[in-house]
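pasting for ref
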Amino acid sequence: MKVIVDTSVWSLALRRASKADDSPYIALFHELITDGRVALLGAVRQEVLCKIRHANQYNRLKNYLRAFPNLDLEIEDYELASEFYKRMFVKSKMVKNVIL
């Protein structure tokens, strides 16, 4: 099964600061990459690349990200996401509306 990693995790993992090294999420992220389980949504790819200011860093990251397949979404994927949202809302869980 492929795992979709949100922009915030990519951003943390790509930082040079040691702050990312201390995160258990980043360790799991690296494990998922090593196992070949990471996929990207086009919107996440775009968000990650938009944050890069320098052309040479942008081109390196763009080429690196090409190793991760884009996950194509169907209408049913959006409908399922809305069902998950509604279930969590009914259970009074704090949820952030996620647009796929």
